[in-house]
């Protein structure tokens, strides 16, 4: 009998992506206005269909709005398997949403985000499911407040926990506002990268670093 | 040598012993060292070069996060795990913003299992470095280990290549660098007397993971990866070109580099010539190793 952690993570029939192995960390790069953010959210909310845990870290969008985005993408979102780490509590004060939640005062507090992430991740892993998809939205915000080396260590550490727990990690970066060398460095900390672009109203993606995935621009 | 070395830091002797025992039972071939304070842990770090440090939050001479900051100054690649029953809010409220650390709640039901898995993975895959690792890092380090690079005549031979490179490019400094687990060592360095640097401060750390076999940094001060790098500034490095030193089996064990103290460009011919020099240097390493009978590959 196979363990639940042996099963690959699937993304559903409407995304041109093959399933990926447990422990995989993916960087989604593109303009957040051009579909990258939506795709990065979809990669995590797809866990709902598989009764997997979902953990989202919001560094630049109010937590109610992020939860609203998730509800729009996944109308029957199972809140018992959903966790939210809000990194903007300094801006809007404490929020009481009907999900498993933790708060950090601001996105510059990488110590707090890391510790709260670990706590929430473990709580989802133990109580809800041993399969957890985690998303960080977005690395770009962290780079506004902290230097590249510290953010690199942070991404590496989060990715390490996800890999050690046979989870799925999704990191979003707005590649249109970051130096290419910075994006490449964050890419190298992940197992693979999905580039997203929008042309004439059509969203396209291509994948690097992960086998069996579309390597050329593919509509989604 | 053990596969993994970890230091367990806890002021409570019985808790400390319990953590050591649990990790010892869960992880094969682990050397576990116990310490009860920041000072004892720092001393143990200097003596044992651990892969990972597991620490309580409340220590007699400070907090576990203060210990992590101290360790990152001594050995920045060391993985650190905060293992405490102190609630997260208290820990976070009193912490500086930039101490990136793993966390395992000591009071959680599955704390022992999670701690062991995290320590094992953190140590084996070095998941807390502040820089990316090559995908084949383990194979790369094993390949590096198989070369005998200590011979004086080897150094004399490759020094000729770095001298040739410096003259060809009109730069003061050229070197052949070896990238080991946590440091960049200078096998030879023409024109400077540089000492090893932490891997997180070395340009070559990025060269060996970049696409392509040659990396050029025309102006270090304008590269976001190095703009605030005080080590490079103190070495007077303003521009750089580095070529991979790649073994016949494909592992990049180091680099062949030239440096300049002013921004400058390098064209395609420059890149091609450095690629040739690095190939010759690698061949010399092979030949010396074969002649020394040290080839275990």
Q: What this model shows, in words?
A:
- The complex is a heterodimer of chains A (220) and B (297).
- Chain A is α/β, with parallel strands linked by helices and 220 residues long.
- Chain A has one domain: P-loop containing nucleotide triphosphate hydrolases (Rossmann fold).
- Helix content of chain A is 35%, strand content 24%.
- Chain A contains seven helices and nine strands; from the N terminus they run βαβαβαβαβααβαβββ.
- Chain A has a nine-stranded mixed beta sheet, with helices on both faces.
- Chain A is globular.
- Chain B is α/β, with parallel strands linked by helices.
- Chain B folds into two domains: 4-128, Rossmann fold; 141-291, Beta-Lactamase, CATH 3.30.450.
- In chain B, 40% of the residues lie in helices and 23% in strands.
- Chain B has helices at 13-26, 38-48, 64-74, 88-93, 111-125, 137-145, 152-169, 204-207, 230-235, 268-291, and strands at 4-9, 30-35, 52-55, 58-59, 62-63, 79-84, 102-105, 173-179, 183-190, 197-198, 214-217, 239-246, 252-260.
- In chain B, the strands form three sheets. Chain B has a six-stranded antiparallel beta sheet.
- In chain B, strand 9 (183-190) and strand 10 (197-198) form a beta hairpin.
- In chain B, helix 2 packs parallel to helix 3.
- Chain B starts with a strand and ends in a 6-residue tail after the last helix.
- Classes of the chains: A alpha/beta (220), B alpha/beta (297).
- At the A-B interface, helix 4, helix 6 and helix 7 of A face helix 4, strand 7 and helix 5 of B.
Secondary-structure topology with pairs:
The complex is a heterodimer of chains A (220) and B (297).
Chain A lengths: L23 E7 L5 H10 L7 E6 L4 H11 L8 E5 L2 H4 L7 E4 L6 H19 L3 E6 L1 H7 L2 H17 L3 E7 L5 H9 L3 E8 L2 E7 L9 E2 L1
Parallel strand pairs in A: 1-6, 1-7, 2-3, 2-5, 3-4, 5-6
Antiparallel strand pairs in A: 7-8, 8-9
Helix pairs in contact in A: 4-6
Chain B lengths: L3 E6 L3 H14 L3 E6 L2 H11 L3 E4 L2 E2 L2 E2 H11 L4 E6 L3 H6 L8 E4 L5 H15 L11 H9 L6 H18 L3 E7 L3 E8 L6 E2 L5 H4 L6 E4 L12 H6 L3 E8 L5 E9 L7 H24 L6
Parallel strand pairs in B: 1-2, 1-3, 3-6, 6-7
Antiparallel strand pairs in B: 4-5, 8-9, 8-13, 9-10, 11-12, 12-13
